[in-house]
Structure of Phosphatidate cytidylyltransferase:
Amino acid sequence: MNEVSSKWGDLAPRLFSAIGMLVVGIVAVWAGGVWIHLLVSLSCGLMVWELVRMLSGASSQRAIWLAVISGFALFAASYAPYATLILPLLLAPSFVGFSLLSAGSRPFTGRRIFMSYTAMILVAGFSLIALRDDFGIIWMAWLLIVVIVTDVAGYFAGRILGGPKFWPAVSPKKTWSGTIAGWFGAALFGAVFVGLYGGGITVVVVSVAVAFASQLGDIAESAIKRHVGVKDSSNLIPGHGGLLDRFDGMLGAALLLIIVELFLDFPPSVAG
C-alpha cells in the first residue's frame, strides 16, 4: 500500500497544476499577439532565474536581473523591426550574464552552462512565438499537444510498465517503456492531425522527431540538475518543480522545429 501511495503520491498536485497551466496556455495561444509574446517572454525569464539559482546554489540579485534582461530581450526580439537584430538580442543575455556572474567575491563555475542553456531557452522561446505569429493557432496547438502527449504517455507507461532505464546516469526515472510510449503517442496524434487537417506522412514523422527532441530536452535539464546536485529547478509549480522541470521538453521540441524548418517545407499548409 505504501509503495502504491509513493508511486502515485504526486499525481493530484501534478494534475491540478497541469490544468492551471493548460488554461493559461490555451488563453494565450488563442489570443495570440502580445499575450503569447508576454507569456513566453515571462516564462523564459523565469527559466533563466531558475537556471542561475541552480548553478549558483543560492538565490541572488543577479538571478533576478538576468531574468529581467532575458525576458525583455526575448520580448524585444519578437518585435524587432529588422531580422538582423533578432539573434543579437537573443544572445545578448548570455554575454551579459557571463560578465555579471564573473564579478563578485563568490566564484561561479557554471558560466559555460549558463551561456549555452540561456541561449537555448531564448531561441526556443522565439521559435514558439514565431510559430504562433507566422503559422497560426493550429500549428502552435500541434506542437503543444505533441509534447504533452509525449510526456503523459511516457509518465504513465513508465510508472505502469517500468523496465530498463533509458539513461540512468543522467535521468534515473526515465525508462525505455516510457520513452517508446511517448513516440507512439506522438505518432498517433500526428496521424489524427493529418486526418483532420492534412499535411501528409511528413507530419507524423516530424511529430515523432519532435517527441524525441522533447525527451532530449528533458534529459539535458536532468543532466544540469545532476551536475549541481538538485532535485528540481525550483518549487514554483506544485507537483512539477519549476518551469524548467515542466517545459524543458518544450525547449527541445521548439529547437528541433527551427532545424526542420531550415531543411523541409514545414509546417505545410493545412485545411482550416
About this structure: The chain has one domain: 2-263. The two ends are 49 Å apart (CA to CA). The chain has a mean pLDDT of 87. The longest strand covers residues 171-175.
